[in-house]
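Supplementary Methods, section 5.1.

A reviewer requested that the exact input to the structure prediction be made available. We therefore reproduce it here, unchanged from the version used in the analyses.
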Amino acid sequence: MTPFGEPEDSDAYYSIGYDKFMLNVFCDDYIFQKHLKDYEGCTVDEKFITNDNFKEAISRIFNFDWRRSITKLEDIIMAMKNDADIKRRFCYLK
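The structure derived from this sequence is encoded token-by-token as follows.
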């Protein structure tokens, strides 16, 4: 087992049903491109989800707890920004 398989991620789609989901539960191998700490998240397009498509966007969220907690457009934009913030999500990696 390598250190790359050890980071926990309770927000990942594949973590559903696991108390403690780690990458090594999901796959046996990986292609190393660079350290996770060196990645940057993407820029969230704040106009991608609008009031017109908000209900559809909510219906496509896989995590039912998130679905219930997101009640307005600003909530989903903030959630997307939090997901895209790689440095914050994996700040414990060196």
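Residues 34-94 form one domain. These observations are discussed further in the main text.
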